[in-house]
Amino acid sequence: MSSDDAAHITAGLQRLAGAIVPGGGEVTGVRRLSGGASQQTWAFELGGVPLVLRRAPSGGTTRGRLSAGLDAEAQLIAAARAGGVPAPAIRHVLRPEDALGTGFVMEHLHGETLGRRIVRDARFAAARRVLARQCGEALARIHALPTQGLPALRVGGPRAELALQLEVHRGHATARPVFELAFQWLRAHDPGDAPRPVPVHGDFRNGNLMVDERGLVGVLDWELAHLGDPMEDLGWICVNAWRFGAGELPVGGFGTRDDLFAGYEAAGGRVDAQRVRHWEVLGTLKWGVVCETMLQAWRTGHERDLEKAVIGRRASESEIDLLTLLAPR
Amino acid sequence: MQDHPTPDELLDAVASFLREQVVPSTTGTAAYHARVAANALDIVRRQLALAPAAQQREQAALAALLAADAASDVAQLNHALCGRIASGAMTLETPGLTDALWQITLDKLAVDQPGYDTYARHQAAAVQHKER
After folding, report:
1. What is the pLDDT of residue A1?
2. Quick check: B85 and A181 CB within 8 A?
3. Least enclosed by CB within 10 Å: which of A24, A254, A324, B113?
4. ipTM
5. Which of B85, B98, B118 sits opposite A320 (nearest CB)?
6. What kind of architecture, by CATH, is found in domain A115-326?
7. How far apart are alpha carbons A80 and A121 in whole angstroms?
8. A6-107, what's its fold?
């Protein structure tokens, strides 16, 4: 039996039922929500309570070099929640004796995460009016989290991120003049590292936000969290790839920069718009490099999902967005 | 000479099968991947139709930009251009560079993702410009 199949997961969760919910209960409806070879998300019910398991199989592929790791992710989510950031409650962190790999169980928040729906569906019209501001508030709270309560995190910044993306891109050995221009521009406009590195979510974008009719319900996917420049998060959510076709609304396709910045400052943050733009350019380039990386994973046989191959053809979206940012016409 | 159906017709037939029969009769990841598969075949169809002319345009533009032999290989020209930009010999200010990259990128998007919003907006603006 594969360690990844639903029966194995169900049996493992059933053994843990009492640790997850006081009094335990029956584990039902185990189903895979998403995930690749290294990380998976499963939904299930325990005594009728909807929960989510995020796990990496033990002995599976090693996690990405930027990943904080699932134990750290659980700690971060708990700290963020305590700091007033909408996030799911952690119910259990997997231990070696649980024999389910590494990971954690959290509450299943109700809402929508699909960016396209959040941007388009009529039922989120009211949410869209407040979402950019709520994102600003949540980000200010994340960036203000006291580091002493957090797990050890890598330290990043615009220079380190640029060097990393260049190294990854060079590793793909693809010739992309538009990427070269973006690398050159980013080097020439280096804003320097932030005066004081703060906790940064690292993947704060439409697609990692749980949203309901009233707005932001939860900030998800903390695995790329690190210490760095807070403006990174504000720039990343403005990258065109996360606007899902609603390009006229730069913040996730649902809001304006003014609203994002106003929420950020109202919750105690300080915006540096020029740095935000720098991170938007770097983020647009990064998305293109990510597309290349997914194709590379498919070509080397590491991932065999069709989607990973086809996404290679989305790197050109990053090229047209970079030209729009750097040489608009 | 190969008989009919043409490559384009075969790709069309498979893409239609995926969209009209596989997608409605499956759910979850299988339905999703059937849609992705149909989209992949559409990319191939557009490439077969558009790439020959686009590649000629790209080759001419890059050869002119680099003052290279007009018969140079397009991959080599791209590689050479990347080197010039990486070394700082060419920048956003280099005459003709961003015009050439815009044309090449628009040609790529026409194959890869003609529905992508930045591309669609750009095409709509270009049409308006022509009409004026």
Report:
1. 41
2. yes
3. A24
4. 0.95
5. B118
6. Alpha-Beta Complex (3.90)
7. 29
8. Phosphorylase Kinase; domain 1 (3.30.200)
